[in-house]
Amino acid sequence: MSHIEKVQQWLAKKNFDIAYISDYKNIAYFTGFESDPIERTLALFIFPNHEPFIFAPALEVESVKEAGWKYPVYGYLDHENPYALIKSHIEKITHDPEKWAIEKGNLTVERYEAIKAQYPNANFVGDLTPLIQKEKLIKTPEEIQKLEVAGKWADFAFQVGFNALKQGRTEQDIVAEIQYALMKKGIMHMSFDTIIQSGANAADPHGAPKQDLLKPNEMVLFDLGVVYQGYISDATRTVAFGKISDKAKEIYDVCLEAQLTAQAAVKPGIKASELDKIARNIIDKAGYGKYFIHRLGHGMGQSEHEFPSIMEGNDMELEPGMCFSIEPGIYIPGFAGVRIEDCVHVTENGCEPFTHTSKELKEIPLD
């Protein structure tokens, strides 16, 4: 059964007339066509007993067809009212649908009001977000293969970045060298803005690379990933640039123990909350618990933050095919930050990581 057929079955069971999918990542998941429409309207409409259609900017219509979409696709010009046109296409299939299912986690108020203006008596009561999250939760072998290739390119990026660490260079210099090397290999998009942080800068978990010169005898944090055929990689390594202090080595060793222990514990049936606790207990016992300030991990696939969260309070049991990150971190303001991360997929008796760059502390010489 296809992804769209599963939605159709759900609509029929729930007695909904129509599903409106607005998240371009989810549209790609269901249709094979991916494009961020930015301010323009891109939508997928699914019906319980009729064929679906895509509604797209006119400049994307041919690309939709080229992506292999076998159902109708309708376009609109910039000066036209997209929602009035959407109504005209829906009316070819069903007159005045009353019960709608939408992605409550994505549909903006502006677009909700625009479609509501066309259907003032409609009830937008169905939430597609949990259904889609569940559908995307277990990756197919084809999806896992794409994630593995994306992971190999992340490993390549790490090696480029490690080799680029030189005195007199800035964090932003290293980012530029990594992304240029990937582009020369045909990898044109990163999963997210590459993070390179040196010394105390790494104590800000989501801080941006700066024009600061790399700090000798400090740790440098690399957090990066690439996009391959619509699927991403996401991994973090922290290395020593020169000789680091015993204190820095200590927090690295604690973080590494937490990451390796949690990753080794992954297996079908263990709860997401239990994994988080395994890593957190190690960091707590070492006295750094207050510096581990985020969840252990997040789901991944088409984007770097998907369902589920690997955290306290989430008692979901892991199943084969689930993909997520394991990324404990210790962030001491004014001193240093360490994070070590692999994304993994659950197997029948454990897990396999998508990235394989060594996690043992790597010392990069200053010269």
From TrEMBL:
UniProt key word ATP-binding: no
Claim: Manganese is one of the keywords in the record: yes
One family name in Pfam for this protein: Creatinase_N
Highest taxon listed in the record's lineage: Bacteria
Residue stretches making up the Peptidase M24 domain: 146-348
Domain Creatinase N-terminal: 4-133
Alphabetically ordered keywords of this record: Manganese
Family per similarity comment: Belongs to the peptidase M24B family.
Protein name (record): Xaa-Pro peptidase family protein
Organism taxonomic ancestry: Bacteria, Bacillati, Bacillota, Bacilli, Lactobacillales
